[in-house]
C-alpha cells in the first residue's frame, strides 16, 4: 500500500479508527511528520489534536537508525539491540543532546498550543510510520504514566517487529505491515519535509 501524502494517510487511518468507538479522542501526533497525519485523524474523528514530544537516539554515523528515543519527560527508551551498535557512553551523550533539542522544541510548540490533559482520555498516538518503533515506544512510556482511559497506536505503515512490540503495551492500528518493510518514506508518493513552522501552524488552528 502506498499513500499519496500524509493527509491521505490520515484520512484512511481515521476510517480504520472510526469503528473503535473512541470517545472525544485526544490525538497526539509525533513531530514532525506525524502531526500532519494526526491533524487529519483528529478532524475526521471529531477529536482534539496535540503533540507528544520524542526524539530519536540514532546510531553513530547513521542517525536515522534508531537505537532508542527520549520522551518529553526525559526518559530514555533503548531498543534491545542498542548496545550492539554503540556503547553506554555514546548513548548517554546522545540522549543528553536530544533532551536539549526536546526542551527547545517544547518551549516553541507550547507557546502556540498549551499541553492538553491526558488523564482519563481516549488517546490515539499517531506517526507517519514506524520502523524500529523506538520513538513510538518512548511516546507510549510518556502517555501511559499520565493515566489515560484508553491508548491506541495508529500508523499508516509499520514494520512487523515494531507492531509486535507495541501490541504488548497498547492497541495497535496499522494500515500496512509489509513483511519486507523498507524506509517509511518508501510508502508515500509525496513524503516532503515537515518543518517546525508547519507544526506550529497546525497547532495554532487548535489553540483556541
UniProtKB/TrEMBL annotation:
Pfam families: Pribosyltran (PF00156). GO terms for molecular function: glycosyltransferase activity. It is an enzyme of class 2 (transferase). CDD domains: PRTases_typeI (cd06223). Keywords: Glycosyltransferase, Transferase. Residues 11-175 form the Phosphoribosyltransferase domain. InterPro entries: PRTase-like (IPR029057), PRTase_dom (IPR000836). Its EC number is 2.4.2.-. It comes from the Bacteria. This is Putative phosphoribosyl transferase. It comes from Thermus thermophilus (strain ATCC BAA-163 / DSM 7039 / HB27).
